[in-house]
Specification:
The chain is about 45% helix and about 5% strand. It is mostly helical and about 130 residues long. It is rod-shaped, with a radius of gyration of 30 Å. The model has no long low-confidence stretch (mean pLDDT about 85).
């Protein structure tokens, strides 16, 4: 109703400036260019004063459970893939890197994280036939 009154009932006259907070205040989708052209043909200038910066989108997908620096990631990969290190030591090192308490539950979380990120530490046995 407001837009039709502004455009058709003489709310805008030649020489006026239409001030919008954002471009979509005039219309959205395919009608926006049509409305802009219509308003300009009336002799009205359009000024957008609002912040037109698009909101920063987060990357798709879930955030990782733990954030590791590149250096810590490389060190942890080496520990996980080298058989010379005991699993408990690797789990403890992981807990220190991500600043969580070294409990049995967190060791399980560490194991799951490293299995997903670096692959299984112990390869499954082949069944005997």
């Amino acid at each position: 109703m407001e837009r039709s009154a502004m455009l058709e009932a003489g709310g805008l006259r030649p020489g006026f400036t239409l001030v919008l907070l954002k471009a979509s205040d005039l219309g959205v989708g395919g009608e926006l260019p049509m409305l802009r052209q219509y308003v300009r043909e009336m002799g009205v200038t359009i000024e957008i004063v609002g912040d037109e910066k698009p909101a920063k989108k987060s990357p798709p997908g879930r955030r990782p459970a733990f954030e590791l620096s590149a250096e810590n990631d490389a060190r942890l990969r080496k520990l996980w893939t080298t058989p010379g290190y005991e699993a408990g030591y690797v789990y403890g090192t992981f807990c220190d890197m991500v600043a969580i308490e070294p409990t049995k539950e967190n060791f399980g979380r560490a194991r799951n994280f490293m299995n997903n990120r670096y692959g299984r530490r112990v390869k499954p046995r082949t069944p005997k036939h």
